[in-house]
Amino acid sequence: MTKVRDIDARGTQHCETTALGVLLRHEGLDLSEPMLFGLGSGLSFIYWDSKNMGFPFLGGRVKPFELTRNLATRLRLELLVEETTSPRRAWENAAAAVAAGQPVGLQLDSYYLEYFASKVHFGGHVVAMYGYDDHDAYLVDTDQQGGAVSTSLTSLARARAARGPMTAKHRSFTLTAPKSLPSPQGQIIPAITACADAFLNPPIANLGHRGIEKAGKLVRTWLQRTENPQRDLPRAALLMEKAGTGGALFRNLYRDFLAECTQLLDSSHLRTGHRLYAEAASLWTEVAALITEAGESGDAQCLARAGIVLCDLSRIEREAMQALNCLGS
Question: What are the Butirosin biosynthesis protein H N-terminal domain coordinates in residue numbering (predicted)?
Answer without folding.
Answer: 14-142
